[in-house]
Write a structure and sequence with these properties.
Belongs to the cytochrome P450 family. The chain has 239 residues and is mainly alpha-helical. It has helices at residues 2-7, 31-42, 61-69, 80-85, 100-117, 120-141, 150-166, 175-191, 195-198, 202-207, 209-238; strands at 45-50, 53-58. Helix 6 (120-141) packs antiparallel against helix 7 (150-166) and helix 8 (175-191) packs antiparallel against helix 11 (209-238). The model has no long low-confidence stretch (mean pLDDT 84).
Length: 239
Protein backbone atom coordinates (compact mmCIF):
# COMPACT_ATOMS: atom_id res chain seq x y z
CA UNK A 1 0.00 0.00 0.00
CA UNK A 2 2.85 2.39 0.85
CA UNK A 3 4.49 1.91 -2.55
CA UNK A 4 1.15 2.27 -4.34
CA UNK A 5 0.54 5.58 -2.59
CA UNK A 6 4.08 6.79 -3.19
CA UNK A 7 3.88 6.05 -6.92
CA UNK A 8 0.96 8.49 -7.22
CA UNK A 9 2.79 11.33 -5.48
CA UNK A 10 5.55 13.70 -6.69
CA UNK A 11 9.12 12.42 -6.13
CA UNK A 12 11.02 13.23 -2.97
CA UNK A 13 13.70 12.02 -0.56
CA UNK A 14 13.45 8.37 0.48
CA UNK A 15 11.67 8.14 3.85
CA UNK A 16 13.05 6.16 6.77
CA UNK A 17 10.77 3.52 8.31
CA UNK A 18 8.39 4.96 10.92
CA UNK A 19 9.98 8.46 11.11
CA UNK A 20 9.83 9.38 7.43
CA UNK A 21 11.97 12.42 6.50
CA UNK A 22 11.93 14.29 9.82
CA UNK A 23 15.72 14.03 10.22
CA UNK A 24 16.09 16.57 7.40
CA UNK A 25 14.85 19.19 9.84
CA UNK A 26 17.30 18.67 12.68
CA UNK A 27 19.53 21.47 11.33
CA UNK A 28 19.80 24.99 12.70
CA UNK A 29 19.01 26.47 9.30
CA UNK A 30 15.61 27.98 8.66
CA UNK A 31 13.17 25.39 7.31
CA UNK A 32 12.92 27.36 4.06
CA UNK A 33 16.61 26.67 3.41
CA UNK A 34 16.01 22.93 3.85
CA UNK A 35 13.01 22.90 1.52
CA UNK A 36 14.86 24.84 -1.18
CA UNK A 37 17.76 22.39 -1.03
CA UNK A 38 15.37 19.45 -1.45
CA UNK A 39 13.66 21.28 -4.33
CA UNK A 40 16.99 21.61 -6.14
CA UNK A 41 17.31 17.82 -6.16
CA UNK A 42 13.70 16.72 -6.72
CA UNK A 43 12.11 19.68 -8.47
CA UNK A 44 9.78 22.50 -7.37
CA UNK A 45 7.04 20.06 -6.30
CA UNK A 46 8.07 17.15 -4.09
CA UNK A 47 6.76 14.84 -1.38
CA UNK A 48 7.97 14.96 2.21
CA UNK A 49 7.03 12.21 4.65
CA UNK A 50 6.14 13.10 8.23
CA UNK A 51 6.16 9.69 9.88
CA UNK A 52 3.73 7.77 7.62
CA UNK A 53 1.95 10.89 6.41
CA UNK A 54 2.86 12.31 2.98
CA UNK A 55 3.03 16.09 2.56
CA UNK A 56 3.29 17.60 -0.91
CA UNK A 57 5.46 20.74 -0.91
CA UNK A 58 5.20 23.35 -3.68
CA UNK A 59 8.14 25.78 -3.93
CA UNK A 60 7.48 27.33 -7.35
CA UNK A 61 5.36 30.49 -7.34
CA UNK A 62 3.60 29.75 -10.63
CA UNK A 63 2.68 26.23 -9.54
CA UNK A 64 1.45 27.57 -6.21
CA UNK A 65 -0.74 30.14 -7.96
CA UNK A 66 -2.23 27.43 -10.13
CA UNK A 67 -2.89 25.23 -7.10
CA UNK A 68 -4.60 27.98 -5.12
CA UNK A 69 -6.55 29.25 -8.11
CA UNK A 70 -8.95 26.37 -7.56
CA UNK A 71 -10.80 25.27 -4.44
CA UNK A 72 -8.98 21.96 -4.06
CA UNK A 73 -7.39 23.09 -0.79
CA UNK A 74 -10.71 23.96 0.85
CA UNK A 75 -11.49 22.03 4.02
CA UNK A 76 -7.89 21.15 4.87
CA UNK A 77 -6.77 20.98 8.49
CA UNK A 78 -5.52 24.15 10.12
CA UNK A 79 -1.83 24.17 10.93
CA UNK A 80 -0.29 25.01 14.30
CA UNK A 81 0.52 28.59 13.29
CA UNK A 82 -2.89 29.08 11.68
CA UNK A 83 -4.63 28.16 14.93
CA UNK A 84 -2.41 30.59 16.84
CA UNK A 85 -3.13 33.59 14.65
CA UNK A 86 -6.76 32.93 13.77
CA UNK A 87 -9.39 34.74 15.77
CA UNK A 88 -11.98 32.85 17.80
CA UNK A 89 -14.32 32.42 14.82
CA UNK A 90 -11.52 31.79 12.32
CA UNK A 91 -12.98 34.52 10.12
CA UNK A 92 -9.74 36.22 9.10
CA UNK A 93 -8.86 36.28 5.42
CA UNK A 94 -5.51 34.47 5.65
CA UNK A 95 -6.56 31.36 7.57
CA UNK A 96 -10.31 31.21 6.97
CA UNK A 97 -11.59 28.26 4.98
CA UNK A 98 -12.99 28.86 1.50
CA UNK A 99 -16.64 29.88 1.45
CA UNK A 100 -18.99 32.88 1.26
CA UNK A 101 -17.43 34.50 4.34
CA UNK A 102 -13.93 34.20 2.86
CA UNK A 103 -15.10 35.66 -0.47
CA UNK A 104 -16.66 38.65 1.33
CA UNK A 105 -13.52 39.21 3.40
CA UNK A 106 -11.38 38.98 0.27
CA UNK A 107 -13.41 41.65 -1.53
CA UNK A 108 -13.19 44.03 1.45
CA UNK A 109 -9.46 43.41 1.95
CA UNK A 110 -8.67 43.78 -1.75
CA UNK A 111 -10.56 47.08 -1.91
CA UNK A 112 -8.81 48.42 1.21
CA UNK A 113 -5.33 47.41 0.04
CA UNK A 114 -5.88 48.84 -3.43
CA UNK A 115 -7.19 52.11 -2.00
CA UNK A 116 -4.26 52.50 0.38
CA UNK A 117 -1.59 51.41 -2.13
CA UNK A 118 -2.66 54.17 -4.52
CA UNK A 119 -2.76 56.79 -1.77
CA UNK A 120 0.02 59.38 -1.79
CA UNK A 121 0.36 59.00 1.97
CA UNK A 122 2.03 55.61 1.50
CA UNK A 123 4.76 57.24 -0.56
CA UNK A 124 5.26 59.85 2.15
CA UNK A 125 5.43 57.20 4.89
CA UNK A 126 7.95 55.13 2.95
CA UNK A 127 10.10 58.16 2.12
CA UNK A 128 10.16 59.34 5.73
CA UNK A 129 11.09 55.87 6.95
CA UNK A 130 13.94 55.57 4.46
CA UNK A 131 15.26 59.02 5.38
CA UNK A 132 15.17 58.19 9.10
CA UNK A 133 16.94 54.89 8.51
CA UNK A 134 19.72 56.48 6.46
CA UNK A 135 20.16 59.13 9.16
CA UNK A 136 20.47 56.43 11.83
CA UNK A 137 23.02 54.57 9.71
CA UNK A 138 25.18 57.67 9.46
CA UNK A 139 24.86 58.50 13.17
CA UNK A 140 25.55 54.98 14.44
CA UNK A 141 28.02 53.66 11.85
CA UNK A 142 29.74 56.78 10.53
CA UNK A 143 30.97 57.37 6.98
CA UNK A 144 33.37 54.99 5.25
CA UNK A 145 32.89 52.12 7.71
CA UNK A 146 31.60 48.71 6.70
CA UNK A 147 28.56 47.32 8.56
CA UNK A 148 25.71 44.84 8.22
CA UNK A 149 22.57 46.73 7.13
CA UNK A 150 20.07 43.92 7.85
CA UNK A 151 18.85 45.29 11.17
CA UNK A 152 18.44 48.77 9.70
CA UNK A 153 16.43 47.41 6.77
CA UNK A 154 14.32 45.35 9.17
CA UNK A 155 13.60 48.46 11.25
CA UNK A 156 12.79 50.47 8.13
CA UNK A 157 10.13 48.05 6.87
CA UNK A 158 8.70 47.59 10.36
CA UNK A 159 8.30 51.35 10.66
CA UNK A 160 6.52 51.53 7.31
CA UNK A 161 4.04 48.92 8.52
CA UNK A 162 3.69 50.38 12.03
CA UNK A 163 3.18 53.92 10.76
CA UNK A 164 0.69 52.79 8.14
CA UNK A 165 -1.34 50.69 10.59
CA UNK A 166 -1.07 52.57 13.88
CA UNK A 167 0.66 55.90 13.22
CA UNK A 168 3.73 54.98 15.30
CA UNK A 169 7.41 54.36 14.61
CA UNK A 170 10.31 52.71 16.41
CA UNK A 171 14.01 53.20 16.96
CA UNK A 172 16.71 50.73 18.00
CA UNK A 173 16.22 51.22 21.72
CA UNK A 174 12.45 50.69 21.80
CA UNK A 175 11.50 47.65 23.87
CA UNK A 176 8.69 46.80 21.46
CA UNK A 177 11.05 46.83 18.50
CA UNK A 178 13.49 44.55 20.32
CA UNK A 179 10.66 42.18 21.21
CA UNK A 180 9.23 42.06 17.67
CA UNK A 181 12.69 41.55 16.20
CA UNK A 182 13.38 38.73 18.65
CA UNK A 183 10.08 37.00 17.95
CA UNK A 184 10.17 37.24 14.17
CA UNK A 185 13.90 37.05 13.48
CA UNK A 186 16.08 35.90 16.38
CA UNK A 187 13.86 33.26 17.99
CA UNK A 188 13.33 31.35 14.71
CA UNK A 189 17.12 31.11 14.41
CA UNK A 190 17.25 29.49 17.85
CA UNK A 191 14.57 26.97 16.89
CA UNK A 192 16.01 26.11 13.50
CA UNK A 193 14.28 24.11 10.80
CA UNK A 194 12.39 21.85 13.21
CA UNK A 195 9.75 24.59 13.56
CA UNK A 196 8.43 23.30 10.24
CA UNK A 197 7.54 20.00 11.93
CA UNK A 198 5.53 21.80 14.62
CA UNK A 199 3.02 22.78 11.97
CA UNK A 200 1.83 19.27 11.25
CA UNK A 201 2.61 16.97 14.19
CA UNK A 202 1.34 17.12 17.77
CA UNK A 203 3.89 14.40 18.60
CA UNK A 204 6.78 16.65 17.56
CA UNK A 205 5.30 19.55 19.50
CA UNK A 206 5.07 17.35 22.61
CA UNK A 207 8.66 16.14 22.28
CA UNK A 208 9.83 19.73 21.75
CA UNK A 209 7.36 21.18 24.26
CA UNK A 210 9.85 23.48 26.01
CA UNK A 211 10.47 25.53 22.86
CA UNK A 212 6.85 25.18 21.74
CA UNK A 213 5.60 26.63 25.03
CA UNK A 214 8.05 29.49 24.69
CA UNK A 215 6.81 30.12 21.16
CA UNK A 216 3.21 30.08 22.43
CA UNK A 217 4.02 32.67 25.11
CA UNK A 218 5.84 34.94 22.66
CA UNK A 219 3.09 34.66 20.07
CA UNK A 220 0.37 35.47 22.59
CA UNK A 221 2.33 38.49 23.78
CA UNK A 222 2.69 39.65 20.16
CA UNK A 223 -1.03 39.19 19.44
CA UNK A 224 -1.95 41.09 22.61
CA UNK A 225 0.44 43.86 21.56
CA UNK A 226 -1.26 44.18 18.17
CA UNK A 227 -4.73 44.09 19.75
CA UNK A 228 -3.81 46.88 22.16
CA UNK A 229 -2.36 48.98 19.35
CA UNK A 230 -5.47 48.45 17.26
CA UNK A 231 -7.84 49.30 20.12
CA UNK A 232 -5.98 52.50 20.97
CA UNK A 233 -5.77 53.54 17.33
CA UNK A 234 -9.45 52.73 16.79
CA UNK A 235 -10.48 54.80 19.83
CA UNK A 236 -8.42 57.75 18.60
CA UNK A 237 -10.02 57.40 15.18
CA UNK A 238 -13.52 57.51 16.69
CA UNK A 239 -12.63 60.66 18.58
Amino acid sequence: RFYQLRSKLPPGPNPWPIIGNILLFKRKDHWDVVLREVAKQYGPTFTFWLFNRPLVVVTDIETAREAFRKNDFAGRDMSYTARQFSNEKQSDIIFADYGHRWEALRRVAHSAVHKYSTNERLVSVATDSVDRTVKQMLEREGVGNGFDPKTYIYLMFLNILATSAFGISYDFEDREFKFIKYLLKDFPKQVGSRAFLWEFSSIIRFLDRKMVHKNDRLTKKFIDLIKNKFTKHYDDYNE
